[in-house]
Design goal:
single chain; two-stranded parallel ribbon
Length: 323
C-alpha cells in the first residue's frame, strides 16, 4: 500500500474514513518514521515491531487491542485508547511518556506492568481500580489519575520521585501525613479537600489547585507554597494562607470580599469573572504587581486603591473616583 513512499518521511497520519489494516506489509521497512498518528476508527493496527525500527512516538485515537510484543521497542511516547486489559509485556520497555484512555474498567496496575523508565503517566478518566504499592515505577515524576479514581493513596503507593499529581472529580479520600511524597511540588485536585490535616501536604509543595477547602487549620498549607488556585468558594480566615504566597486565584464567585485573608507579600491576584465587590484603599497588598478584577467588576476605585507597584492589570474600564 505504501511501497511508493520513501524517506525523508518522519511523520505519518491516517485520518481517512476507509477501512485500512496496517499489517506487516503495509509500511515499507525503509521508511524511517519518528511519529505515527492514527485518527480513524476503521484502522486496525497489526504491525510487527521490526517494520517500524525508528518509531519513537505513536498516538492512536481509536480503540485498539494492544497485545504483548506488538509495539516497536523504540517507542518513548505512546498515547492510545485501549479496549482490552493490558498484560505484562504489552508496553515497550523504553517508554517515558504514556497516556492511556481505557474502555475497560477492569485494568489493574500490577508491579511490572508499567515500563521501568516511565516519567509521565496519564491513566485517563475511566481508570478506577486500586493502585498497589510498587505498581508505579520509581522514575515517575508526573501522574494524572482522571475523574473516576477514588481509592486511598496510602504511604508507599506514590513513588518518591513524583513532582506533579493530578486527581479528578471523584477523589474524596483523606490524605494523611506521609501519603504524598516529599518530592511533590504541584498538586491538582478537582474535588474539594474536606479536611487538610497539618502535615498532609509536603513541605516541598509550591503549587496547589483545589476546589472548596473546609476546616482549614492554620499551618495546614505549607510555607513553601507560592501559587494557589481555588476552583470554588473557599472557607478562609486570617492566617489560612501562608505568607510565602506569591500568586492567588479565585475561579468561582466569592460570597464576600475578605481582603484581610490576603497575604501581605502577594504579587499576583486574580478574582473570578463575576467578582463585583467594592475595593477600598489599603485592601490590596502594597507589593502587588499583577491584578485581574474580571469583566463584571463595576465599582469606582478611590485614589490610592491600586498599589503603586502594579504593572499588569485587567480592569473593566472602571473609573477612578475623584471626590
Amino acid at each position: 500500500m505504501l511501497a511508493g513512499i520513501g524517506n525523508p518521511i518522519t511523520e505519518l497520519i491516517f485520518v481517512d474514513e476507509d477501512v485500512v489494516d496496517l499489517d506487516d506489509g503495509t509500511i515499507p521497512t525503509t521508511l524511517r518514521l519518528d511519529s505515527f498518528n492514527i485518527n480513524n476508527n476503521n484502522i486496525q493496527l497489526k504491525l510487527c515491531p521490526e517494520h517500524l525500527p525508528s518509531l519513537s512516538s505513536l498516538r492512536i485515537c481509536c480503540a485498539q487491542e494492544i497485545k504483548p510484543n506488538s509495539l516497536p521497542p523504540s517507542l518513548t511516547h505512546f498515547a492510545a485508547s485501549v479496549e482490552t486489559v493490558l498484560e505484562p509485556g504489552s508496553l515497550p520497555p523504553h517508554l517515558t511518556c504514556l497516556r492511556l484512555y481505557m474502555t475497560s474498567e477492569a485494568q489493574v496496575l500490577l508491579p511490572g506492568l508499567l515500563p521501568p523508565k516511565l516519567i509521565e503517566l496519564d491513566l485517563g478518566d475511566r481508570f478506577c481500580t486500586v493502585i498497589p504499592p510498587g505498581a508505579l515505577p520509581s522514575s515517575l515524576t508526573s501522574l494524572s489519575l482522571g475523574h473516576r479514581f477514588n481509592h486511598p493513596l496510602t504511604q508507599g503507593v506514590l513513588p518518591p520521585s513524583l513532582r506533579i499529581l493530578e486527581l479528578g472529580m471523584s477523589f474524596r479520600q483523606t490524605l494523611a501525613p506521609g501519603d504524598l511524597p516529599s518530592s511533590l511540588s504541584k498538586l491538582v485536585t478537582r474535588h474539594e479537600l474536606m479536611n487538610i490535616v497539618i502535615g498532609s501536604l509536603p513541605s516541598s509543595l509550591m503549587d496547589l489547585t483545589t476546589a472548596t477547602v473546609y476546616a482549614l487549620e492554620h499551618g495546614a498549607l505549607p510555607a513553601s507554597l507560592k501559587h494557589v488556585r481555588f476552583l470554588s468558594k473557599p472557607n478562609l480566615e486570617v492566617g489560612s494562607l501562608p505568607r510565602s504566597l506569591e500568586s492567588l486565584t479565585f475561579v468561582k464567585l466569592l460570597y464576600c470580599w475578605k481582603p484581610w485573608i490576603i497575604p501581605a507579600g502577594l504579587k499576583k491576584l486574580t478574582l473570578d469573572s463575576k467578582f463585583d465587590h467594592r475595593i477600598l484603599p489599603h485592601d490590596l497588598p502594597n507589593g502587588l504587581t499583577d491584578l485581574d478584577l474580571g469583566h463584571a467588576f463595576d465599582h469606582p476605585l478611590e485614589p490610592f486603591t491600586l498599589p503603586d507597584k502594579i504593572t499588569n492589570k485587567r480592569l473593566s474600564e472602571v473609573p477612578y473616583q475623584t471626590d
